[in-house]
Each structure stands twice: as structure tokens, then as C-alpha cells.
């Protein structure tokens, strides 16, 4: 019967300080800890222009690979690392994360980003809400699940925010 080798290394969850995921990642890696910060590409509006930026998939969290046989003994430097708030624990035990989850997240992150639902300048149909049935000109996506559109009201184009789920393609 083949023997299975059990590695003492396991993934754990680190809670970071607000908006300091990259700082925590850098400082932990400088100390020699293998870490992983899953990122997602998001379209944001900055200075009036849509830009694709990378953001943490799980804000304020990153994964760290540690020797589970050393639990607590060699982990003190982690808690005092710049950008780190604490190791996530349940009942006094550090929260382990399965290798399969990390592998799946890495595969998903490497996959090509999704094409945007609508392109800037595209005429869209408002399917729901107080402006249902009207057409608008799509401008860009906004943080979250909202979009900026130009809607013609009283012979004037008005810029407004609307939930992307309320928009539909024409034709």
C-alpha cells in the first residue's frame, strides 16, 4: 500500500489592517513566509475615466503558509508585522484553509478577466425601475454593481447612476 506524506505546512488566514493587504503581504514575504493575496480586476472611475484596477478579492484578508507543528511558537512575529492585525482564530485555534481552496483561487485568478457587460457609448435599455422602457447611453461601471449612464430627460442628457442589473442590451 503506498504511503502518503503529510506535510506539516498548512495555509492559514491573516486579518490585515484596513487597506494594508499589500503592505502586510510585502512585510510577511520579507520575513520569509510564503503568502498569497488573491486579487480581482475591477473597473473603477478615477478622474472621470474608467480604469481597470486590481483589488483584493477578500478585503483585509490574505493567506499565509505555516508549519502547523509550530503552532503559536514561531507565529508571534506575524502578529507584530506591519499591516497585520491578527491571525484568524476560532476557539483559540488558528483557522486552517484547505490547499484545494488556495489552488482553486489561484486558478480562478489566472483565468482571463471577464469581458465587460457593456461598452462605453453603447445604447442600453433600462429594463426595471422608474425609468423602465427608456434607452440610455452607457458610460462606465461604478464601484459595486452600479453603472453610469446618460439618460435623455426633457431634451437634455442627464448623467445618472443605476444598478447594472436594471440594464439590458438592445437587439
Report what the structure shows:
One of its GO terms (molecular function) is transcription antitermination factor activity, DNA binding. By secondary structure, the chain is an alpha+beta fold. The protein is 15% helix and 43% strand. The chain has three helices and 14 strands. The strands form four sheets. Strands 1, 2, 5, 6 and 9 form a five-stranded antiparallel β-sheet that branches. A five-stranded antiparallel β-sheet has the order 13-12-11-10-14, with no helix packed on it. The longest helix is centred in the middle third of the chain and has 12 residues. The termini are far apart. The model has no long low-confidence stretch (mean pLDDT 85).
Features:
171 residues; Transcription antitermination protein RfaH; NGN_dom_sf; transcription antitermination; NusG-like; 15% helix; SH3 type barrels; Alpha-Beta Plaits; transcription; alpha+beta; 3 helices
CATH superfamily of the largest domain: NusG, N-terminal domain
N→C terminal distance: 62 Å
- What is the β-strand count? 14
CATH topology of the largest domain, what is it called?
Alpha-Beta Plaits
Helix-strand sequence: EHEEEEHEEEEHEEEEE
Largest sheet: 5 strands, antiparallel
Please mark out the parts with pLDDT under 50 across 5 or more consecutive residues, or reply none.
Answer: none
Q: Which overall shape is indicated by the principal axes computed on the Cα atoms?
A: elongated
| Tally of separate helices | 3
| Beta-strand content bin | 35-45%
The multimeric state of the shown protein is: single chain
Average predicted confidence as pLDDT = 85
Sheet/helix structural class: alpha+beta
Number of separate structural domains: 2
Helix content estimate: 10-25%
CATH architecture of the largest domain: 2-Layer Sandwich
- CATH class group of the largest domain: Alpha Beta
- The radius of gyration computed from the alpha-carbon positions, rounded to a whole number of angstroms, is 22 Å
Amino acid at each position: 500500500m503506498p504511503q502518503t506524506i503529510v506535510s506539516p505546512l498548512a495555509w492559514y488566514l491573516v486579518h490585515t489592517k484596513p487597506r494594508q493587504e499589500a503592505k502586510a503581504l510585502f512585510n510577511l514575504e520579507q520575513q520569509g513566509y510564503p503568502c498569497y493575496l488573491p486579487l480581482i480586476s475591477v473597473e473603477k472611475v478615477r478622474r472621470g475615466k474608467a480604469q481597470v484596477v486590481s483589488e483584493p478579492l477578500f478585503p483585509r484578508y490574505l493567506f499565509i503558509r505555516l508549519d502547523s507543528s509550530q503552532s503559536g511558537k514561531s507565529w508571534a512575529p506575524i502578529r507584530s508585522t506591519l499591516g497585520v492585525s491578527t491571525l484568524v482564530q476560532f476557539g483559540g485555534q488558528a483557522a486552517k484553509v484547505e490547499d484545494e481552496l488556495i489552488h482553486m483561487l489561484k486558478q480562478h485568478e489566472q483565468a482571463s478577466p471577464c469581458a465587460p457587460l457593456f461598452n462605453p457609448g453603447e445604447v442600453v435599455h433600462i429594463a426595471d425601475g422608474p425609468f423602465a422602457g427608456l434607452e440610455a447611453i452607457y458610460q462606465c461601471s461604478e464601484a459595486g454593481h452600479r453603472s453610469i449612464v446618460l439618460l435623455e430627460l426633457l431634451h437634455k442628457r442627464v448623467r445618472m447612476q443605476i444598478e447594472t442589473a436594471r440594464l439590458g442590451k438592445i437587439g
